Amino acid sequence: MRLDQISTFSSYPAVAAFVRDHVSMQRGDIRDILRLPLPRQKMTHGCNLAAASLLCGFISGISVSIHRPPKKVGSGHAFKLLLEHFFPWPAGQQAKVGAKLIYDLFRNPLAHALAVPRKSAGQITINRIRFRSRSGKIQHTGLTSRQLGALDDLRRRPTWAHPTLAGSPGSWTLLVEGFYRDVLEMLAKLGNDSAQLTAAENRFAAGKFIWR
Question: What is the pTM of this model?
């Protein structure tokens, strides 16, 4: 599914064009990374850090373009507000706390410190899913085409696409596949907010794509 084909975008042509021309290609980069590793091609890295960094950058870009807070704020605050209001947080996860965790433990270190968190953060891990067949054999590649298709299907969430964050203070893990799916759901939820999309449509039609 192409992002500009999310049905709610079709009523906002300038937004749909922006998603098609600027957002979808970045999502495509992330999808291709999720196919890694490919051992037969001697590509043995899963690119966990690159995928998480791209997804954080994706959120950051949406937070200063399609989404706009009620008042002008800094980029970090905008990032967290987008997550608070539109990210599909699981039951029991406070949105404000979760948004701060993603920003403080992953976004900032990935963007500015070679993914090295502050000492007070404790153990921080970025993981990928390892699938097993019924016989117990481990899948040594990244996602297959079928698995990617299931992850992209917004009608139903795969049972293996666990939430982005797991753990507790002092030990947090970010699951790349869950993060990717949650970001897609975030964008679809944003697409259902008529006030946000109407405002974005007016800005984009006037040629202003980044409100900051």
Answer: 0.94
DSSP state of 120: G
Report the distance separating Cα 154 and Cα 191, nearest Å. 13
Tell me if 139 sits within 8 A of 169, measured CB to CB: no
Q: Are 28 and 54 in contact (CB under 8 A)?
A: no
Closest-CA residue to 105 (of 163, 166, 187): 166
Taking the chain (212 residues) in runs of 10, the rounded mean pLDDT of each run is: 67 93 92 94 92 97 96 94 98 96 96 91 94 85 94 93 96 98 96 96 97 89
Pairing of strands 171-175, 165-168: antiparallel
Contact predicate 106/48, CB 8 Å? no
Q: Give the start-to-end residue ranges of the domains of the chain.
A: 3-127+142-205
Tokens of 109: 């270190």
d(CA 83, CA 4): 20
Integer Cα distance of 132 and 137 in angstroms:
5
Residue with tokens 């794509």: 209
Token pair in block for residue 187: 């964008």
SS3 103: helix
Smallest CA-to-CA distance from 139 within 52, 31, 36 is with 36
